[in-house]
Amino acid sequence: MKEPVYTSTGIKLIHHTEAVDRLKVGLPTPISLQVAPTSRCTLNCIFCSNANRDKHEDLPEDDLIKTIIYLSSKGLKTVEWTGGGDPTLYEHINAFIGFCNNLGFEQGFITNGLLLKERIEPDRLKLLKWVRISMNCLDYKPQVDLPEIKGTLGFSYVMNDLTTDEILLNLSEHVKKYNPKYVRIVPNCLATFEEQEENNRNISQIVKMWGEPYFYQAKNFSRPERCWWGYVKPFLLHDGYFYPCSSVVLNEGSDKTFHHKYRWAHLSEIGTLFNGKEKMVPFPTENCSHCVFRPQNDLMDSIVNPNDMINFV
């Protein structure tokens, strides 16, 4: 199955035994940092969950350096450059890819691909473990010209109101041209519970008929009792704040932005989360109606709060 290999389902946590042992005593170890370094983007996708952001924010270079160095000292293993904008538009992105490589991090990169060849230097592109292209660029452009990718190339496409048979045919032509390891199809998460259930049911059957390398990743809304996921996969936004996850923008009342009520800590306060002394405190979930990380949080909760039946596997 491609989903547990190429997406974040939580199952990979079993390979990080030292981090799991620390979770058992309430002292977390960050494993993978997600960074959305800029709010700038070349597109205005109709399904963008961060559409109402200020579109001129960039993480300060010095602050990001200090944050990455600090998390490196706490056991961080990977960095994912992602959106909230498009990371190719971050002025310092090439320097940071080199910087993180020198620290020994594996790196992933998520982009709409339109400026990948133009903005990311070839010697930096070779340092990336994987690159995921948001093929919704085809909703707005007839084609995307991608450079040679040394790491794992993947495509992702969000089914939305602009999706047509013609666009899906164009997507298949790009799949033939670039031969990605996988093509992830996901539903538009700006939906009601009922719409999402219908999307998961119907689209999954369609994608199943397409065969390799396509797969459908269901997105199910379910509020966790306690939220821990940010302790192993912290998400740093271009506004300078850490959030408990990247999906808080999907919640009711978020107004298509990373609302301030979901702020976890400013990057200058990162030491309060991973100082090795203060035990974890779950992020409040009363405002998390559209959480898509319920399985990950339930898994972590079973580690943090074990019951007396854990030996009956």
General description of the model:
- The chain is α/β, with parallel strands linked by helices.
- The chain has one domain (3-304): TIM Barrel (Alpha-Beta Barrel).
- Helix content is 27%, strand content 13%.
- The chain contains nine helices and ten strands.
- The protein has helices at 3-6, 17-24, 61-73, 93-102, 116-119, 122-125, 165-178, 193-210, 294-304; strands spanning 32-35, 78-81, 106-111, 130-134, 152-158, 182-186, 214-216, 235-236, 241-243, 265-266.
- The longest helix is centred in the middle third of the chain and has 18 residues, at 193-210.
- The protein is globular and about 55 Å long.
- The mean pLDDT is 96.
Distance between the ends:
23 Å
What fold name goes in the CATH topology slot? TIM Barrel
CATH architecture: Alpha-Beta Barrel
**How many domain modules?**
1
Poorly predicted runs are none
Regarding CATH, which class? Alpha Beta
Oligomer: single chain
Please state the CA-atom Rg, rounded to the nearest Å: 19 Å
* Share of residues in helices: 25-40%
Main beta sheet, described? 10 strands, mixed
Largest sheet strand order: 7-6-5-4-3-2-1-8-9-10
Give the integer mean of the pLDDT values.
96
Tally of helical runs: 9
Number of extended strands: 10
